[in-house]
Amino acid sequence: MRRKLIDVQIPFFIPVWRRVAVVGLCFGWALLELTADNIEWAVLAAGIGIYCAHQFFLAFDPKEK
User: Fold this and answer.
1) 37 Rama sector, left if φ>0, alpha if ψ -120 to 50, beta otherwise
2) How far apart (Å, rounded) are the C-alpha atoms in residues 42 and 16?
3) Residue 27 and residue 4: Cα distance in Å, rounded?
4) Any idea what DSSP says for residue 62?
5) How far apart are alpha carbons 28 and 38 in whole angstroms?
6) What is residue 38's predicted lDDT score, i.e. its pLDDT?
7) How many CA atoms lie within 13 A of 39 on its CB side?
8) Which pLDDT score is estimated for 24?
9) How high is the pLDDT of residue 45?
10) How far apart are the first and last CA of the chain?
11) pLDDT below 50 — which residues of the chain?
């Protein structure tokens, strides 16, 4: 099996609440950085949140592992 650089599809994230918490934390952090006028960090945190949302809710198959 080929491993990805950032593999978030692991058994730890099978419970939905953990996936929601990670995505919410990323977007919350992006909002915090926006309120502090740190645009670069806000974009980085939002990008990680978008990646996690895609991996957790569109591409994640909990029955695969």
Assistant:
1) left
2) 25
3) 23
4) T
5) 14
6) 96
7) 0
8) 98
9) 97
10) 12
11) none
